[in-house]
Every structure is written in C-alpha cells, then in structure tokens.
C-alpha cells in the first residue's frame, strides 16, 4: 500500500526525521487557513500516489491567499496524471542549497534491505543511477542484526559530509531504517532530502510503501486506508475483494487465477495478435464463492465494456479444488448470464482433482453452455477467433 | 539423481492439521514421501493420515529423526515456525505458505543461511525429484527424466509440466522456487546445483517480470556447460501495475520481461517465445 506524501511526512515527523511545517487540506477554505497558519508564501502540493508530480505541474508556489485558493481549486478539480486529487499539502517554502537522495528498499538478489543514498537527489533514482552512477551509494543491511548507529554514520560519511551535517544525516538514515522495519515498509524514500540555507536537512518529499502482506499487524493504516484513485472502477472493486485486477483495454475478458499463469495467457493472446481486456489473479485455495465473484466481475466488465467480445476462463491449479472452480463458474453464469460467449479450459493437477476429474468438469461446463476445450491452446485460439469476428 | 532431495529424505510437516496441509500430506504419502511426523501446537497425540502429531518440532524429532520440514502454517506465524525448525537443527525447509510479510521472509532467509539451512519458497509448490520423493505439492504430470526445472511461478509451471508430460519430457528435479519477492534461495542457486548434477542434461528456467533475480541467472549461464532454456512471462503489462505476485511489477524498466529476455539471450540461454516453443527447444537438447 502506497502512502500519500502528507501521510509519509506525518510518520517521518514521529520518527524524528525533519519535515517542513505543513498541513493537508481537502478544500480551498482549509488550504487558505493552513497557509495563514504556516505563513505565506507557501508551497501547494497536489497529493497523488504516482511519481513525476513536479514535472506534471503538481507542485506550485503561492504568495498570497488568492493564489493558494486558486491553486488548491485547480488541483482539487482536475485529475493529475489521470489521478484524482483529493487533498493538497500546504507547506512552508524551504529555501535550499542542496538536494540529496535517501531511500531504503529491498534488494531481491540479496534478500535484504538496501540503503541507497546520493548527494545528487531531486530526480528519479533510476535517472541518478544512469547519469551519475559514481554518486550512488548502496549499502546492504543484515535484516537480523539491523542497522547500528555507527553504520549509519559510515554511510553518511560516504556522502562527504562533515561535522553537524554528518551527524544530522546519520540520524536521518538511522531513523529511516527504524521506520522501514517497524512499519513493514518495502520502500521508504526521501527525494529530495533538502539541505536548507541554515545547513539543516529536511525531507522535501516522502514516499512510503507498506508491504500488503503485513497490513494485519499495521493497524494504523486501517484508519487512513487509501483508495488508489489511479485505479479504474473495476480495479477498485477487485481490490476491495482482495483480487488483483489490471485493465488492459482489449477484447478478451479473462477469468484466471495464478499470477504466472495469468501473465502467460496475456502474453500468448498478444502473440496471437489480440489483446485481453484484463489481467486477473487471486490467491490459491479458492472457495466456490470466491471463484463465483471473480467470474461475476468479468461478466460485469463485459456488460459495461462493449469492446469485450468473449470471456476466457482458464487456470492451472494444484491446490484449488476443481469442483469449486466448476461450481463457482456455473453459479455465476446462472445468476448473471453473460452478454458474450464463455470459453473454458483447465489444467488441474495434484490435490485439486481429488474429488473431481477434468473429464467430469468438462461435461458439467459443456452442459452449462460453456465451450470447454481440454487443450488450452485450442481454447485460446477459439477466444481469439471470436474476438476478431466483429468490429 | 536430481538435486537436494531423494527417496531417503525424512520429512516432518509443520502445521499438519490444516485443511490445505492435510490434502498435501495425503498426496505426498501416496507418492512415497517419507513423512515421519507432524507438528501442530496443542494437538500432540493426534494422527493425520497415520502420521503422529507433536506439539513441537523438538518433540517430533526426539521420536522421529528427520532431514527436512515442510511448513504449511498461517503466514502470521511462519517466521516463528521456520525459526523453530532452524533452532532444532533441520537443514532443509520447504515453505509453502503464501502471504508472509516480506520483513519476516528476510529474517528467515538470513537466519537460515547463517545456519547452513536451505529454504525452498516461500509461496511455491516445493521440490520434487520424480520417482523418488516430493516435498510439497504432488503433481502427477511430473515424470523422471533429465531436464532440471526451476520456476518462480507455481500456477504457470503446472501448465508447463503438463505440456512437458505430453511431449514425454521428464525432470531430474522440479523446483518451484517461490513467487515472493524475497526467497530463501534464489533461482540461480538451483541452477548451480543442476550444473553439477550428473542426472541433469538441460535446464528449463521459468521467470517473470519484477525484481532482478533473472540477471543472476544470466550471469551464471555464461560460465555453465549445460544448455538453459528460458521462458519469461509478463511481456504484455502496464508499468507500475502489479501482476499478481508481490514482486511482479515493472518498476524501473530493468525488471521488464524484454530486458530480462535480452540479457538471458546474450548470456547464451535459448529463449522460448511461447509455451509450445519450450518443448521444441528441449526436444533438440535431450
């Protein structure tokens, strides 16, 4: 789960990482009140979850209440990078002489946290890595032992800092690591980390992503649950049910489970010169009800999106019971008939076929008006054919 | 032959009384896996498929010496379960659990390595040496042969093993390394073992978008003597959108399917564009 800048900064503040004085506002009135409390001029920053906000014009300076009101109004009424802006962050202006980068994320090759720092911040980390590779410091952290204060100091020293600035930086690195672990983050990033005119480091931005699998023990986020407003309507519905759905804009609605399998189907359909309407995934060990909901989601998608010409239900299962898939699929179609033809093909192995064999599944599905193909390739080709039939 | 496990591997099951675990155990017993005991706190004295259940790993091992543990507990307690196995001297773990917090997995990974413990997973189907043993999900499509199979995704490999089976291509060992971003052992570590295994003639690697593990594979292929066929999924995706697996997100461009395919190709891997091409490429090699 991604947090907004204002939420991230609230957490930074609690962890002793200096942030500019600021306040989130949901309308122009709140924005003006915040600006007056902070003292003009202020920065008005649109709150969205995507990066590249500055370049897209989402961060502006306001010198008087009229400008604050105007900026807040324009941010809150028009989407930025296709993302609805629900709040703006009104902040003091930080005059600065330097922009550093500091981030902690996970290195999947080494399977541990990595602290990344650079004296050249302000741009995307990939850009820094490309244009100034020598300016990028990477330090792997032992997740069992954690990060010690003196090690944070060693990292800060590599940024060529001295005296009080060195002490400040090592403190920020140490605190950011503490937050990273305690908040179950998979990313905690300060970019830019500003060096102001009084030689104080202060977080110019905050980007925190919490590991979804740890939300059960991160109760705080239940309060500021975030609706990803860059998500489409179907993406949002799927998310609320715990499914992973991505709109792809094509003609074949996909009902599938299993991430790798789903990606393969999407790729193969593309290789046949077609495009799926969506990617879909849900965790294994699926109940009848869950598979029914997955199917209903795609039936509704086909109802609303006239581009969708056919639904393809397929998956490779080992843990999920085949009878649950069959019952879920047929129940969904019984209660909510599909506007478009439905094609199915399953590969089931291991415990999934303890109670129902594939041949029996094929018979039941055929009886329910579904075109069942024992061979996956035949099913995909049939779906592609139908999707190409009409304009 | 094969790698890591064989018919003599003695196994305990942590979380043996769960619904999912029971099905898995039933299939494994049928397959011939030597399951000697199960663990489920508070359930000592019970039996699952004729296998005695103990409160702790320690208790189970006192009565039934074992080489490995398969962990099927709830993701919230998976870290503690893995540490219990490591603390009691087990050197080989398969973690089937899906949804373990990534910080817990990092902890398990570090602690296991410090104790020379090999961890397969989390979030995978385990490891099978066909005809000998299966530690994880039994897939009847798996058959003995000389292709080593390493997959990140579980759901995808079920389908691909079906295709291999139809084509008569068997496996020396099949490893489902896990769909999570952080794994106990990275795919490249299995590749190193397959290179040394006399029973393996070629390796099939199944990768996907997200993360940088494929680049380790590419680096190692350069110095390998055996051929590697690679199939990478996620070529059609939307940058920044997660495709199922926690790790399956194109975040930087370096982690895209196209870049991984190019890197593997330049290293000397044979790249399959479609699942069907995998079969053609392997048939030419074995």
Helix fraction bin of chain A: 25-40%
Q: What is the annotated CATH architecture of the largest domain in chain A?
A: 3-Layer(aba) Sandwich
Relative strand content of chain B: 15-25%
Protein chains sharing the most extensive interface: A-B, 58 and 73 residues
Structural class of chain B: alpha/beta
The helix count of chain A comes to: 13
In which range does the helix fraction of chain B lie? Answer: 25-40%
Number of domains of chain A: 3
How many domain units of chain B? Answer: 2
Computed CA radius of gyration of chain A, to the nearest angstrom? 26 Å
Q: Report low-confidence residues of chain B grouped into runs of 5 or more.
A: none
Low-confidence stretches of chain A: none
- Between the first and last Cα atoms of chain A, what is the distance in angstroms? 39 Å
Order of helix and strand elements from N to C terminus of chain B: EHEEEHEHEHEEEEHEHEHEHEH
Could you explain how this protein is built, in words?
The complex is a heterodimer of chains A (391) and B (286). By secondary structure, chain A is of the alpha+beta class. Chain A has three domains: 21-92, ATP-grasp fold, A domain (Dna Ligase, domain 1); 96-223, 2-Layer Sandwich (D-amino Acid Aminotransferase, Chain A, domain 1); 233-389, Succinyl-CoA synthetase domains (Rossmann fold, 3-Layer(aba) Sandwich). In chain A, 38% of the residues lie in helices and 23% in strands. In chain A, the strands form four sheets. In chain A, strands 5, 6, 7, 8, 9 and 10 form a six-stranded antiparallel beta sheet that branches. Chain A has a four-stranded antiparallel beta sheet with strand order 1-4-2-3, with helices on one face. Chain A has a four-stranded parallel beta sheet with strand order 12-14-15-16, with helices on both faces. In chain A, helix 11 (322-335) links the parallel strand 14 and strand 15. The mean pLDDT of chain A is 91. By secondary structure, chain B is an alpha/beta fold. Chain B folds into two domains: 10-120, NAD(P)-binding Rossmann-like Domain (Rossmann fold, 3-Layer(aba) Sandwich), CATH 3.40.50.720; 139-285, 3-Layer(aba) Sandwich (Rossmann fold). Helix content of chain B is 34%, strand content 23%. In chain B, the strands form two sheets. In chain B, strands 3-4-2-1-5-6-7 form a seven-stranded mixed beta sheet. Chain B has a seven-stranded mixed beta sheet with strand order 9-8-11-10-12-13-14, sandwiched between helices. In chain B, helix 3 (78-87) packs parallel to helix 4 (102-114). The two termini of chain B are 16 Å apart. The model of chain B has no long low-confidence stretch (mean pLDDT 94). Chains A and B meet through strand 11, helix 9 and strand 14 of A and helix 1, helix 4, helix 5 and helix 7 of B.
């Amino acid at each position: 789960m991604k947090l907004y800048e204002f939420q991230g900064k609230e957490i930074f503040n609690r962890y002793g990482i200096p942030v500019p004085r600021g306040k989130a506002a949901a309308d122009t009135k709140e924005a003006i009140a915040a600006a007056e409390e902070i003292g003009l001029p202020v920065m008005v920053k649109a709150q969205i979850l995507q990066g590249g906000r500055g370049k897209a014009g989402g961060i502006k300076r306001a010198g008087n209440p009229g400008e604050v009101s105007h900026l807040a109004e324009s941010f809150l009424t028009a989407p930025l990078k296709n993302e609805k802006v629900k709040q703006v962050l009104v902040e003091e202006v930080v005059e600065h002489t330097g922009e550093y980068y500091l981030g902690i994320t996970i290195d999947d090759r080494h399977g541990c946290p990595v602290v990344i720092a650079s004296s050249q911040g302000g741009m995307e980390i990939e850009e820094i890595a490309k244009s100034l590779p020598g300016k990028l410091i990477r330090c792997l952290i032992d997740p069992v032992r954690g990060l010690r204060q003196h090690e944070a100091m060693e990292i800060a020293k590599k940024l060529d800092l001295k005296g009080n600035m060195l002490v400040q930086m090592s403190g920020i690195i140490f605190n950011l690591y503490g937050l990273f672990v305690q908040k179950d983050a998979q990313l905690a990033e300060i970019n830019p980390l500003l060096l102001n005119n009084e030689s104080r480091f202060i977080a110019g931005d905050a980007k925190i992503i919490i590991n979804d699998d740890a939300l059960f023990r991160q109760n705080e986020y239940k309060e500021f649950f975030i609706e990803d407003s860059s998500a489409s309507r179907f993406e949002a519905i799927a998310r609320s049910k715990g499914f992973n759905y991505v709109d792809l804009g094509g003609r074949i609605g996909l009902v599938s489970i299993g991430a790798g399998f789903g990606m393969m189907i999407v790729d193969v359909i593309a290789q046949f010169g077609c495009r799926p309407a969506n990617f879909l995934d849900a965790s294994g060990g699926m109940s009848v009800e869950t598979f029914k909901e997955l199917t209903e989601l795609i039936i509704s998608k086909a109802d609303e999106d006239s581009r969708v010409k056919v639904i393809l239900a397929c998956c490779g299962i080992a843990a999920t019971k085949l009878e649950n898939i069959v019952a879920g699929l047929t129940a969904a179609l019984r209660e909510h008939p599909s506007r478009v033809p439905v094609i199915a093909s399953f590969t089931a192995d291991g415990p999934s076929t303890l109670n129902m064999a594939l041949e029996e599944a094929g018979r039941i599905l055929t009886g329910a008006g579904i075109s069942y193909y024992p061979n996956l390739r035949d099913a995909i080709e049939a779906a592609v054919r139908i999707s190409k039939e009409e304009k | 032959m094969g790698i890591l496990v064989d018919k003599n591997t003695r196994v305990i099951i942590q979380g043996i009384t769960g619904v999912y675990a029971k099905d898995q155990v039933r299939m494994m017993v049928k397959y011939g896996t030597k399951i000697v005991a199960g663990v489920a706190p508070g359930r000592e004295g019970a039996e699952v498929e004729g296998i005695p259940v103990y409160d702790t790993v320690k208790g189970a091992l006192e009565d039934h010496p074992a080489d490995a543990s398969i962990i099927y507990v709830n993701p919230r307690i998976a870290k503690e379960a893995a540490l219990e196995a490591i603390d009691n001297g087990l050197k080989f773990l398969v973690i089937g659990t899906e949804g373990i917090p990534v910080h817990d997995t990092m902890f398990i990974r570090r602690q296991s390595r410090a104790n020379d413990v090999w961890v397969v997973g989390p979030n995978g189907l385990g490891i099978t040496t066909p005809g000998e043993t299966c530690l994880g999900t039994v897939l009847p499509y798996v058959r003995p042969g000389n292709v080593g199979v390493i997959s990140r995704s579980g759901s995808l490999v079920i389908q691909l093993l079906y295709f291999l089976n139809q084509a008569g291509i068997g496996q020396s060992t099949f490893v489902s390394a896990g769909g999570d971003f952080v794994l106990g052992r990275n795919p490249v570590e299995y590749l190193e073992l397959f290179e040394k295994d006399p029973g393996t003639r070629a390796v099939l690697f199944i990768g996907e978008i997200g993360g940088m593990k494929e680049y380790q594979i590419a680096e190692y292929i350069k110095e390998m003597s055996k051929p590697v066929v690679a199939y990478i999924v996620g070529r059609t995706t939307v940058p920044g959108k997660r495709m199922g697996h926690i790790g399956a997100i194109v975040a930087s461009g370096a982690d895209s399917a196209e870049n991984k395919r190019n890197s593997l190709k330049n290293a000397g891997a044979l790249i399959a564009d479609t699942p069907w091409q995998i079969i053609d490429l392997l048939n030419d090699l074995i």
